[in-house]
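Morning. Coffee machine broken again, so started the prediction first thing and wrote up yesterday's gels while waiting. Chain of 152 residues, entered below exactly as on the submission form.
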Amino acid sequence: MHLRVRKIIIIFLVITVSVSISVAQSEKKDSLKCSIEMVHNINKQIENCTDNLILDYLQTFGEECKNNIEYSEFNNEVLFKLLQVQPEQFCKVLDANKSKIDFNSIIREIENPLLDLVDLQQTKETILEIEISTQLKTKLILALDKAIVKTK
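Came back before lunch.
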């Protein structure tokens, strides 16, 4: 009987810890949504950002952010800057973490550049050279094509 009770207690503890970790990760992701502070962080470190910083930045994207003008404008500028400065790292983090981010919001942002200072054609050519999944590459190229048409 003692052995059975111990097993039940251990199972209970494992489940409790797993749920706690899951909730903590979800709360971190939600707390990053629309975070202009995170956008400032990646902008300051854009030349040598880590994969974790890029992931945190990508977790700021969401439909709920589109009405936040300050966030939206600065975020759009930083997104394209990141695409130009760290295209391979950006693509690899995006590809590896699609389930942790609002992927469609990021694609929509790429489709709608707010500044015309970005060389979208060069960005597209760079992405064509990066080794990532065909599905991601196709979505990024289509988004950049839409952006190119909009900026002409």
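The longest helix spans residues 2-32. Going to sketch it on the whiteboard this afternoon.
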